[in-house]
Amino acid sequence: MHKMIKKSFYEKTARNRINSIVDQGSFTEFLKPGTVELSPNLKALDIPGSFDDGVIIGTARIQSSPVRIIAQEGQFMGGAVGEIHGAKVVGLLLKAIQDQSSAVIFLVDSGGVRLHEANAGLIAISEIMRAMLKVRNAGIPIITVIGGTCGAFGGMGISACLSSHIIMSEEGRLALSGPEVIETVKGVEEFDSKDRALVWRVTGGKHRYLLNHVQQLTEDDTNDIRDGIIHALSETSQKKDSDTLSLETLLQKQQSLEEQYTRWFGQKDGLEIWKGMNIEHAEQIPMLSAAEVTQIKQGV
Fold this sequence. Notes:
- By secondary structure, the chain is α/β, with parallel strands linked by helices.
- The radius of gyration is 19 Å and the shape is globular.
- The longest helix is centred in the middle third of the chain and has 20 residues, at 118-137.
- Helices cover 43% and strands 12% of the residues.
- The protein is built from twelve helices and seven strands.
């Protein structure tokens, strides 16, 4: 049987990521290039804008199932959220409720708020968070994929965690404060942002998956990610998503996070935590495949 060639999700642009995971020819873009004004805030600062303000929204099909889709472009200002960027995301989310969509697919690739737009960016993040919760309360699952060049940090790190189901590749990163921010505030002794291996051991997909912060770990392969989305669509369709937002469920999740905080506070490297979880040969985790790490987690 012919084996499909691996195609990197990490290296693709936002539009190419969309086309690589949806049914061929099924994507229809909303607010196409040229139909939206460039950011007035960037223009006031003499900073070049982008024709889509760093985010693509629209409708598509995945294995014939109709979905709404959002893809952030990490190559434009690190995927940072500004006024127009945020408005497009919020508009798509609210339209998903209006249309009673089967699911929203969110390809997150962002360092957080666009500091050039200050309060406008912060307000946009809060509106995205509110809209995501409205979508889930309407019983519509949000499946988020984190595997881009910028990861999911700052306000988008918080927003990503409001999803029904998170899929991460090892190359993806998820955290509140980015490595450079931590180093700037606390010093290189606390966290060396140039130590790429350390950064991925602390914020990368394998670590987040082993700590139960995300539901799926995949290879950096668009075929694997598409399969992961199909699996998530099937899984989330079998239960009402709004039920997972009950007070009891949220309190259970909060208790789990508090227990992790108590147990691991003071550890500065994912490797120390993996050893503390009694994972045999924990130092080999960075070299293992997603499937091998998934198997290890089942035994923890």
